[in-house]
Amino acid sequence: MTDDLSRNQTFDLPDGYQILPWHRGFGRQVGPLFEKRDETGLTRAFRVEEHHTNGMMNAHGGMLMTFADMAWGAAVEKNDDTWWVTVRLMCDFLSGAKQGSFVEGKGHVIGRQDDVFTVEGKIWADDKLLMRGTGIFKVIERRDGQEKPFTRQTEKA
């Protein structure tokens, strides 16, 4: 669980990043996750903590794939209320990330057919490319009574 955040998880973030307040479900289990929005789009991130590691104290491949799903799928978001599901995720593992590394990821839409999007994405730490791949994501409508797994805090003018 990620109930106890260390100081570097919450205060030692690169400029522009804020915590993604995912308070329930699977995102809570693999977090904390961070994001920034700027002129280049949406970038998601996480710091490799002990609960993310394999026996070699690198980010576990399952965590990197989970993160790729969350980072690349976000490329299809139009707003905070966009919901999507993963149809297919293909990943090439290129390198590892040690505990303490700040891992970032971003996807770009490269194709669309109705409400199904093809996304190309990358995951990196510093200048090292960790993973690349593609995903297919389907945008779905929210059902009445369902809540988003997180709510972004917006700045007030």
Description of the molecule:
This protein has 157 residues and is mainly beta. It has a single domain (7-140), classed as Hotdog Thioesterase (Thiol Ester Dehydrase, Chain A), CATH 3.10.129. The chain has 3 helices and 7 strands; from the N terminus they run αβαββαββββ. A hairpin with a 2-residue loop joins β5 (102-113) and β6. It starts with 6 loop residues before the first helix and ends in a 17-residue tail after the last strand.
- Summarize model confidence as the mean pLDDT: 85
CATH H-level name... which superfamily?
Hotdog Thioesterase
* Named CATH architecture: Roll
Strand arrangement within the widest β-sheet reads 1-2-3-5-6-7-4
- Give me the count of strands: 7
CATH topology: Thiol Ester Dehydrase, Chain A
Number of DSSP helices? 3
Major sheet:
7 strands, antiparallel
CA-based gyration radius: 15 Å
Sheet-strand content, in percent, reads 35-45%
Termini distance?
35 Å
Query: What general form does the structure show?
Result: globular
Give the helix/strand layout.
Elements: H1 7-10, E1 18-20, H2 25-30, E2 33-38, E3 41-47, H3 61-73, E4 83-93, E5 102-113, E6 116-125, E7 128-140
Antiparallel strand pairs: 1-2, 2-3, 3-5, 4-7, 5-6, 6-7
Organism: Hyphomonas adhaerens MHS-3
Pfam families: 4HBT
GO molecular function: thiolester hydrolase activity
Q: What's the gist of this structure?
A:
The chain is mostly beta strands and 157 residues long. It has helices at residues 7-10, 25-30, 61-73; strands at 18-20, 33-38, 41-47, 83-93, 102-113, 116-125, 128-140.
